Amino acid sequence: MMMLASLLPVLLLSVRTIQADTVTASVPTFKHTDPITGKSIECERCPPGSYLRSRCTSTQKTVCAPCPAGSFTALWNYIPKCLRCSMCSMNQVVKTACAADRDCQCQCAEGYYYKQSYDMCLRHSECPSGEGVLSTGTPSDDTVCQICPNGTFSSTVSAHLNCTEHKICTAAGLQLMLKGSVWHDSVCANCQNLKSRDGADYLKEILSSFFGHYKLNIKRLRRVVHHLEQGDKGATSELSLSDLHRRLDAWVDSATASKVRQLPEILKKVGADHASERLLSKLQRIEGNLNELCGLRNEVEGTTMSQN
């Protein structure tokens, strides 16, 4: 026991010496000509977070200094000054702040994702009417959209909203006047409380969604608004797309049934034949169901329409 006790300090000293030698051996070096002797010597590099203040000599070790604020070194080095911290570019925010031993890390700002082929952050794609968000965009990935499954719809352009289930008319004691599609909800009616409403009144429920789904070019949309408002043509010639849709929504809110019935013909006049046909078809289906399910007879362009 006495012999072991006397050997313990020697063993500990040996372990510390080995550890010190290992640390010393792991420090990278660089070759340098001693300005005093003219001989080539090896100098220790400076650790990350510092820079070389003065090189070593045959009598003095390398002198390092810490990087000042706003600069960094991420590697063992022998450079005379630290590197300036990077700045995040357009549509980027700081993910990790710059520190003495690392540069700052940036990521795309909220609503943007990194497109590698462009080496820049682009705005997340928006799912069009008739499609919902399957997965929302992240700083590294774009939005993923899907066509609304059966029984659901999306009437808006969005980078966040998923498809919504169609309302079930019978669950509320109503009759189905128009089956929902991927871009509009079902249209329901209470046959016991129709009052003076007719098919065109019910069609108004989907008109805002209709103009969002059938994307008319801005020239045609300006002509549509001009015909609907019957105002000065110059008053609509400079309106933006968002302004035009606001004017259309306002018109829908105040339009009478007789004015709504004129809409398919106006669409045809401006060259939007497909949109005109689709809207007229929707109106005819509503009129047919009102006649069949509620015992009403409504006129579409002067002719009683049957259900399609």
Describe this structure in words.
The protein is of the alpha+beta class and 308 residues long. Among the domains are: 33-90 and 97-104, Tumor Necrosis Factor Receptor, subunit A, domain 2 (Ribbon), CATH 2.10.50.10; 171-304, no CATH class. The protein contains six helices and 18 strands. It has helices spanning 2-26, 199-213, 218-229, 241-254, 257-269, 273-294, and strands spanning 29-33, 40-44, 50-54, 63-66, 71-72, 83-84, 92-96, 105-108, 112-115, 120-123, 131-135, 144-147, 152-153, 164-165, 175-178, 187-189, 299-300, 303-304. The strands form nine sheets. A two-stranded antiparallel sheet has the order 1-2. A two-stranded antiparallel sheet has the order 3-4. The radius of gyration is 37 Å and the shape is elongated. The N and C termini lie far apart (106 Å). Residues 1-23 and 299-308 have low confidence and may be disordered. Residues 1-20 form the signal peptide. Residues 66-106, 107-145 form the TNFR-Cys domain. It comes from Channa argus (Northern snakehead).
Report the C-alpha radius of gyration, rounded.
37 Å
The side-by-side strand order for the widest beta sheet comes to: 1-2
Can you summarize the main beta sheet? Answer: 2 strands, antiparallel
Shape: elongated
How many E-type strands?
Answer: 18
Strand content: 15-25%
**Number of distinct helices:** 6
Span between N and C termini?
Answer: 106 Å
Proportion of residues in helical segments? 25-40%
Query: What is the helix/strand order?
Result: HEEEEEEEEEEEEEEEEHHHHHEE
Q: What would the average pLDDT be, to the nearest integer?
A: 87
| Alpha-beta classification | alpha+beta
Low-pLDDT segments = 1-23, 299-308
